[in-house]
Design goal:
Strand order of the largest sheet: 12-11-13-14-16-15-23
Helix content: 25-40%
Distance between the termini: 50 Å
Shape: globular
Number of strands: 25
Strand content: 15-25%
């Protein structure tokens, strides 16, 4: 879904304005009510808000992700800035109606620049008792809760520990409750379609989507088109879902329980002029890989084994054979990276995708790639917990694994995107490093970025970097007797990259492998001095990679610097905005390149009395900074499978600023 924004940006990313603070200082995200024309007699009131946070929650079979995704697509087409947080059950199929089986989708949309999915929902749609109980703790007083009353019977409530109905015992008195028999209304709306009750009930998520679309004046044409395309082979199901969607919209229009609807204007001031679409991190990353292969004029080869939350990249790239993309779903993680490394040897842009457990299995082949000095992208979509724990939750705990998780001295550059849309640019950057310096490169995303989405300005192809590769086509060394030969380890003096020769090129026959090679010739060598030289040379190559200096946002000459990496960018920036609005001086920097660090990072860190490093791990970047730069970097850590909340970070950072 794309939309046009015609006015220039007036709020830069990370800047503040009168209405630009991410959330209120108190922590509850509250839409600012704007003036509206007088309501005509008999018409429902329309209130204008500057932002809204909605959370859809239900059983994993209730279609909450689809509902949230459709609402997001229509919001993107309308022109709002947005940020999403899908939250899947950790179990593949938890028992229906239980707390472990709750699936939710949170969407924050606004008429100005925003950075996070929001701390707390203004509106909760609870499809059953489990959804209500699992999410009520996040809902602020005064928020609206739409409850599917059909599910609040004795057995479903008992499953989650409700002894009495929360709809009747007064426990929800602090909220604006809208009891709606969603299931009954959906079945009634579809009674003429000849569906069984069970089949009709499956459309209740579309009824809820229609109701919310009415409440917030979302476009409807795109959803109806989507439903007809999705169920093109079952037109009766398609029309039933469209009917349920329309019934929900009409219910909002006619019922007296919803006396007010809301408008959130397009965010025309938040974006530069251009064509935008809503995009998730994994989709942006996939497009970035394709763009990199086209800019390098190389075929793209993905060797991968399915693993949550990286599998979507394999699924997406498999659709793009027309761009020279070849995907291989291997029998295991080791085979996947082995095939990708083989493709790199053959002259392709080799990529493998995985998560933390897969990185552990791929580590030996990554070490081999370091020795072979071939370009290879290792995309790690980090997830919660070691082994297979918390596979759908987010974490940043693979940094040290990416930095050191191989035998011997095997340095690998590391690049980390900061937002879902930034995954596109980070993929191009990682490919630039891999191709220029002939090295494997880690691209560290995470589940929050992978599944979350935001508006993305579609770039002009002419603005993309030139990644053209110059393969070796002729001998590069002359022996003492005048014979011209090809040395596979004769290096470029600027980058220390060795030449890349496509196998089968006449006169460039060569041998590479895991056993240590002699400098220049590539012959097998057991000489201690040569091994020392090659180890130091590979390290020097990584240390010498050109990366931009880290930029510092410090308008008030603060004494405290907060520095982050990866997906903490949104919550950190939102927290910094809050503090500055409250008059608290604080500086901010964010790292994309984690190996090597930007050359000015040490100087930047030493300018500040205090350095705070928020991470979704137990302090991995903080430890690296302390070790390398000998500064007293202080950690602020969270490992609960969820991203930081802006208010939570704001309080922690304020304490750090004020603490002596």
């Amino acid at each position: 879904m794309t939309s046009q924004v015609s006015s220039p940006a007036e709020q830069a990313d990370g800047a503040d304005g009168a209405d630009g603070a991410e959330e209120t200082a108190e922590g509850a995200v509250v839409g600012e009510q704007r003036s509206a024309p007088a309501t005509p007699p008999g018409a429902k009131e329309v209130r204008r808000l500057d932002r809204v946070i909605i959370r859809f929650a239900g059983d994993s079979g209730d279609g909450m992700q689809l509902t949230g995704d459709r609402f997001t697509s229509e919001t993107a087409s309308f022109g709002n800035d947005l940020s999403t947080l899908p939250n899947f059950p950790a179990e593949i199929r938890a028992p229906a109606g239980t707390l472990p089986g709750v699936s939710s989708f949170q969407l924050h949309f606004a008429d100005h620049d925003i950075l996070t999915p929001g701390d707390a929902p203004n509106v909760l749609v609870a499809m059953n008792p489990a959804a209500l109980k699992a999410n009520i703790g996040d809902v602020p007083r005064g928020a609206e809760i739409i409850i599917n009353t059909d599910e609040f019977t004795k057995r479903p409530m008992a499953k989650v520990g409700y002894e009495t109905s929360p709809l009747e015992d007064g426990s929800l008195g602090a909220y604006n409750i809208h009891p709606v028999p969603l299931t009954t209304l959906t079945v009634e709306a579809l009674k003429d379609f000849g569906l069984s009750r069970k089949e009709a009930e499956r459309s209740k998520n579309m009824f809820a989507l229609g109701l919310l679309s009415w409440m917030y004046h979302r476009p409807t044409e795109g959803t109806e088109t989507f439903l007809r395309q999705k169920f093109a082979k079952k037109p009766e199901i398609a029309e039933a879902n469209v009917a349920a969607f329309r019934a929900g919209w009409n219910f909002g229009e006619t019922t007296e329980d919803f006396a007010v609807s809301y408008e959130v204007a397009p965010a025309t001031r938040a974006f530069p002029t251009g064509t935008y679409r809503n995009i998730s991190g994994n989709l942006a990353l996939s497009y970035g890989l394709i763009a990199a292969s086209r800019q390098a004029d190389l075929p793209l080869y993905l060797g991968s084994y399915p693993i949550t939350p990286a599998s979507d990249i394999l699924h997406e790239l498999s659709k793009h054979k027309n761009f020279g993309v070849r995907t291989f779903q291997a029998e295991d993680e080791i085979a996947g990276i082995g095939a990708a490394l083989g493709a790199a040897f053959g002259g392709a842009l080799g990529v493998t995708t995985t998560s933390g457990p897969g990185v552990a299995l791929k580590s030996e082949t990554i070490g081999l790639a370091v020795s072979l000095e071939l370009p290879l992208l290792i995309v790690d979509i980090q997830r919660g917990g070691p082994s297979t724990g918390l596979p759908t939750k987010t974490e940043q705990a693979d940094l040290l694994q990416a930095m050191y998780g191989r035998n011997g001295e095997a340095p690998v550059p590391i690049v980390a995107p900061r937002t879902p849309a930034d995954c596109f640019d980070a993929a191009l950057d990682a490919a630039r490093i891999a191709l220029t310096y002939r090295t494997p490169v880690f691209l560290l995303s995470d589940g929050y970025l992978a599944n979350g989405s935001e508006p993305w300005r579609i770039p002009d192809v002419s603005d993309l970097p030139d990644l053209t590769v110059r393969f070796a086509t002729a001998p590069n060394h002359e022996l003492a007797d005048g014979t011209e030969v090809f040395w596979p380890y004769k290096r470029d003096p600027q980058t220390l990259a060795r030449p890349w020769a496509v196998p089968g090129t006449p006169g460039l026959e060569h041998r590479i492998g895991g056993i240590e090679k002699q400098d220049g010739t590539g012959n097998i060598s057991y000489a201690p001095a040569n091994h020392d030289l090659m180890v130091r040379t590979r390290q020097a190559k990584v240390d010498g990679i050109e990366v931009p200096d880290v930029e510092v946002d410090d308008p008030d000459q603060a004494r405290t610097l907060v520095i982050g990496w990866g997906s903490t960018y949104g919550p950190i920036t939102a927290a910094v905005r809050r503090l500055r609005v409250a008059g608290v001086p604080i500086a901010q920097a964010h790292l994309r390149h984690l190996n090597p660090f930007p050359r000015n990072l040490g100087e930047v860190l030493r300018r500040y009395d205090k350095v705070v490093v928020p991470e979704m791990n137990l302090g991995q970047l903080a430890g690296l900074i302390r070790a390398k730069y000998l500064v007293d970097a202080r950690s602020y850590n969270q490992v609960n499978g969820m991203p930081f909340k802006a208010e939570q970070l704001a309080k922690a950072l304020e304490e750090a600023v004020q603490h002596d």
